[in-house]
Each structure stands twice: as structure tokens, then as C-alpha cells.
Amino acid sequence: MTQQIVKISLLQHAASTYVNSNIDKVYSLIEKAADDGANIICLQELCSTKYFCNRIDQANFKLAIEIPGELPVKFIELAKKYSVVIIIPIFEKEAPGIYYNSIAVIDADGSYLGKYRKTHIPDDPGFHEKYYFTPGDLGYKVFKTRYGNIGTLICWDQWFPEAARITAMKGADILVYPTAIGTLSDETEDDKKKFINAWQTIQCSHAIANGCYVAGVNRVGIESGTSFWGRSFIADPFGEILAEAGEGEEVLTQAVDFSTIENQRQIWPFFRDRRVDTYQSIGKKFLKNLND
Predict the structure, then answer these.
(1) Domains of the chain by range and CATH?
(2) Residue 53: active-site member
């Protein structure tokens, strides 16, 4: 049974080129979140490394690990010690030449529940992810944990309402979006404000449209000219932001009440009123004719 009131912590931090240092920082932040009373702890995208996708370099494939085989044991130990769920975004190696941008989920008893692989892979200036990552092949995932049903999506996935809808329909109480988003060196402060507003708006719209909680967790710091601006947040099923981090390193902790989900879906019964018999066209890449 889903626990109704839980505390969620988002870990927002800068990263160095040293994986072990990054992992040690994450361990420390997990302990801080646990001390804050967290039940669910979510880390940022590619939490053990810098955001290496801002450039094409074959050497970066050495950063990938096998999940769960090479996942650091201390994540499991911390989950058991503090009775917390830990959501761990990591660079995954499946086989030579096959790599994924993934999430591993550890339950509060230290058990490995499974993984999600990022479905939508971008390729933009400063975000060369198609060079590194194979599109996810596991489908959209919801993990039944001690503290609730957690839907896992990653960064670029957040711009696709189809991904949020399907994950929510599978029973997610909360959609989590570990992220690496920032502004490039040639982008202005005004650009940054617009990007932050769009980033939060799209995720809050998923909360409203699906009547569930949403959490976006972003990194901070400047890496190879990209300025990651943090601003991690947690929104309720009405799309209201309950808590928001600043632009520095921070552990953002917020209590949420999953019992509000049913009430929200009664007020706005979007699932009830879906016309699935009219959605056939959504399966097409693009509609060339106005009446297709």
C-alpha cells in the first residue's frame, strides 16, 4: 500500500572530472537528506560524472558501468541504513558499443528494483547525446517502492507529454525527471529566464494533466561553457510548485501527500474523459495532410 505522506529530497550539486569525488559527494548528500527526514531521494542526471555530452570524445565511454553489476554497493548500504528509496541516474554499459542514459532504483530495504533507460535522446549544440546513448528499450517504468509508486523519466523525456501520460497511467504517484539543463556561453540572461520558465512550465503541465506530483532535479556549475542553473523543484497535482532550489548546491526536501491525487483526479477527471478512439494519429511521426 502506498504511504500517503512522504518526504522527497532532490540532490542538486556541481560535478568534477573525478568520478570517485562525485560519488563521495553524493553519499554525503544522501546522508544529509536522510537526516532531513527524506523517504525518497532523487539524484541528478548522470550523477557520478560531469555532463560529458557537451563534446564528442570516445574516451568518455570508459565512464559507463554495468547496472546492477557495477553499481557501488554503498548505495544499497545507505538505502538500508536510512530506510530510504534512492533514485540513481547513471551512464550504463550493456555491451561494447551499446550504452544508455539510465536510472537504477533502490528500495528502502536495499533491494534493487530495476532500471529505466532514457527514451528520447537529444542532439543539439552542447548536448551531443546521440553519440553516446542508445534510445531506451525497456519502455516507460513505474517502480513500486515502500513509499509510493515512482515513475522515472530523464531530462529530454520531460518535453514529451506522451511519456508523462503513459507513465502516469501505469500508476505513478510522482514523475521524477533527473536533468542536466543549462545555458550555453553565447546565450543571454534573458534566454536563461525563458528556458527556466519553459522547463518548469512543461513539467508542471504534466502534473496538472495527469493529476500527480512531479519533481525535476537539475545540476549546477559551469562545465565546458555550459552553465547549469539548478532550480530543482517539486510540484503538486495542481501544478503548484511546493518547493524550489536556488542556483547553488542544495538538498531540497519537501513533504508531499499522495492522498491528494485521488481528489485531484475527481475534480479534473482527465483520465475518465480521454477519447482513446480518436487518438490513432498520435502513432504517426507527422501528419502531412490537415485532415489525416
Answers:
(1) 5-274 (3.60.110.10)
(2) no
